[in-house]
């Protein structure tokens, strides 16, 4: 049984809610993060059109400080980042269950501890 | 992909205390309620407030709240830093030095009230002046939209509420009024927000195509609309068209990303009408049954070919056509519009009209997944119209109106005419008549005017500082207070006040969980002022809760001695005296709204109440839109008027046309050469709401400096790198921001942020926390509205750029010490 956080980062908007929610939960000072956004782009792919033209992608990374909100999940709550994800692209659960959500049409990342 | 029912099923409801309003947890008291500003935004999301020993410790989103589903933005998650901030205003203070010195002396609320009462009695009433010489200002969106106009009318007895240098009401009023012409009501994109069951509601379907036009809803969340609702739609399959010179999240995912030259978007709307009507891509059944003047509009738009639009907008003709076809081919199409319709064009009303027509001819009104026409829940509409209900009748007669500055037609905006206000302030008389009109006092509540909404801010500073008596009420000491206030009053934040508000749906209640020194809530300030200044009226309310209940149950209607309603608030320019409020033939019942709750009951019910009217689709087919109960729309003809007849009476040609911005390649090529960049200002950030949140350490960790986006081409040409500071300058003035090289912006555009000041920097003049140094409004202008005198082209002004050097004169110095950049301002002439 491996707990995991699954991110459908195709839809991440880079809104920073996960980062701030986590900082509040872990009490992290300036410069420290339990989850940290990465940003790729924006840049254009030559010769591509429509939604394939532009790359502008955010992907949150779980850091060493992340404990997947062990005390919260024990109490039945969601991890702070998952609960507050405004883009509805984060899921928490058993890794083997979450894997089944990855449908192959959009980009996903599965994080485990 | 999102499965909303799975999301709901996955919530451990016991862990989140379903059905409880308050409980103990980990040594904290937890309160389930809603947050509205201050500090804030246009929205009100469900929160769980954790307090300990009377102090706010933590904020979580409430997953059981259907409005935001617990998904809070970074600002609300960081609310504790604002609420507990050491720089908050704790007590009333009066100026101890000169204006601008930032020297203050603590006084009591009683002393403050004496100052205000004495000033009004001696300098206004005692000098034979009317109460119209008191101006009342407020900030946007935050939960003061019913309180401050009420304070203006009921306490100060003036009818003059508005932004002074807020030329053409360049926020929201153009869209609200413009849509009322053709549609009779206001449309919002249907992302299921009117339904308590949200995305799982059996009738709701996501839009097939969403056009995001000139705004970034994910960051702005404007007009009571959470942008991330639309992200959910995209995950459910909605295709995107982005119309915006700047790349956004939407543009990077769009089937078509159209990049019009700033100020020209109206041409695309007109060309889309041309394509969609010309190629007969319309919804025939809807047009036949529900629209008027189709043939007239079709003939009119024949002149607006895609080639014509391409030549003005710079968007290739085939892209204009392809995007129009995609929108029109959608069974369910939706258009998300934003501030640029009000502030980035001289064609506000006609652009709004054309876009409403695009909605209508494609049948995208009142159908799930398109646009729903909305009212404020339970017909609770108190707002600007409260001013007219309660102001002194003579002051109401002298309310700032468009005729005073020579604009034609009936007034159709509830707020005082901002251009008349500014012009009278500058001239000391009514431009149309030469009649003296002295301005003696400004009361401003929760608006950091110079850092925020005052356009052409050097001019605003020059004339506003001449107002003899100025009172500001705000949670923080702002640079605007430092610059011009004589008396400052501490205001409670949302978590420190009981309150309630509708902005569409649902109705929401905010429950007080803590307090801060001597700060009073906006409702308490109304009572504090009113009991002294208008005691006869204020016997009606013993407590803030009484006032809130009156808002909920009578919509703050004027009530006669018999307890019957005498006059009610209206919600739209097309309403009669009774507005949407229910009244009986014999003069009205004592309770008039449809609100089922008192404040306490609303809190106990979980803090929100959805309104059945808003939650109903196809209202036009059910006789729900018209006061007479007939099917159809709330327009004179009962149909959607594709050429709105009411525009004529408002002084606006009813056929939509493109009115160019003051500076264009077609009309002023020499200015375009001299100032080679479009300055698109007002770029939103996740970290801030307008001028707010600059004090919060965590927000500044993420966003330490004001940023201006420049293209890689421009960066190469000017030798700029990320982190360089540049001046943006035109004939009005200049401001500086930090360069962010950004691939998603055209070479001839800059996208700069607004609302900047630095609470950590020197407050006294000349610096004023830098509120002038970073201020894009040093470059904007007033009095440039298009037809109807509404809307302003301030987001498409022109400028040049160059690097900031050591020794440069800072704008704060230039404006406060050296007389600004201009000495030839002219008020509007009638």
UniProtKB/TrEMBL annotation, chain A:
Matches recorded under InterPro entries: 4Fe4S_Fe-S-bd, FDH_Electron_Transfer_Unit
Residues in 4Fe-4S ferredoxin-type domain copies: 3-32
GO terms of molecular function: 4 iron, 4 sulfur cluster binding; metal ion binding
Gene3D superfamilies assigned to the protein according to its UniProt record, in alphabetical order: 3.30.70.20
GO CC term, one of those recorded: cell envelope
Primary location class: other
Compartments (UniProt record): Cell envelope
SUPFAM superfamilies: 4Fe-4S ferredoxins (SSF54862)
The keyword Metal-binding is annotated on this UniProt entry: yes
Keywords: 4Fe-4S, Iron, Iron-sulfur, Metal-binding, Repeat
Organism: Gordonibacter pamelaeae 7-10-1-b
Name of the protein described by the UniProt record: 4Fe-4S ferredoxin-type domain-containing protein
Signal peptide: none
Domain of life of the organism encoding this protein: Bacteria
Keyword flag Iron-sulfur: yes
Any single Pfam family the record assigns to this protein: Fer4_11
Automatic annotation (TrEMBL), chain B:
CDD domains: MopB_CT_Acetylene-hydratase
GO molecular function annotations of the record: acetylene hydratase activity; iron-sulfur cluster binding; metal ion binding; molybdopterin cofactor binding; oxidoreductase activity
SUPFAM superfamilies membership: ADC-like (SSF50692), Formate dehydrogenase/DMSO reductase, domains 1-3 (SSF53706)
UniProt keyword annotations, A-Z: Iron, Iron-sulfur, Metal-binding
Top-level taxon of origin: Bacteria
InterPro entries: Asp_de-COase-like_dom_sf, MopB_CT_Acetylene-hydratase, MoPterin_dinucl-bd_dom, Mopterin_OxRdtase, Mopterin_OxRdtase_4Fe-4S_dom, Prok_Mopterin_Oxidored
PANTHER family: OXIDOREDUCTASE YYAE-RELATED (PTHR43742:SF6), TRIMETHYLAMINE-N-OXIDE REDUCTASE (PTHR43742)
Record family assignment: Belongs to the prokaryotic molybdopterin-containing oxidoreductase family.
Name of the protein in its database record: Dehydrogenase
